[in-house]
Amino acid sequence: MLPAARTIVRREGGLYALERALQRRGFARVAGADEAGRGACAGPLVVAAAILPSGRTGEVPGLADSKLLTPAARERVYAEVMKRASAHAVVVIPAGDVDRRGLHVCNLVGMRRALAVLAERPDYALTDGFRVEGLGLPGLAVWKGDQVAACVAAASVLAKVVRDRIMVELDAEFPEYGFAEHKGYSTPEHAAALRRHGPCPQHRFSYANVAAVELGLMIDSDEIGPGLDGGPGLDGGPGLDGGPGLDGGPGFDGAAVGPGRP
Question: What is the share, in percent, of the chain residues with pLDDT greater than 90?
Answer without folding.
Answer: 68
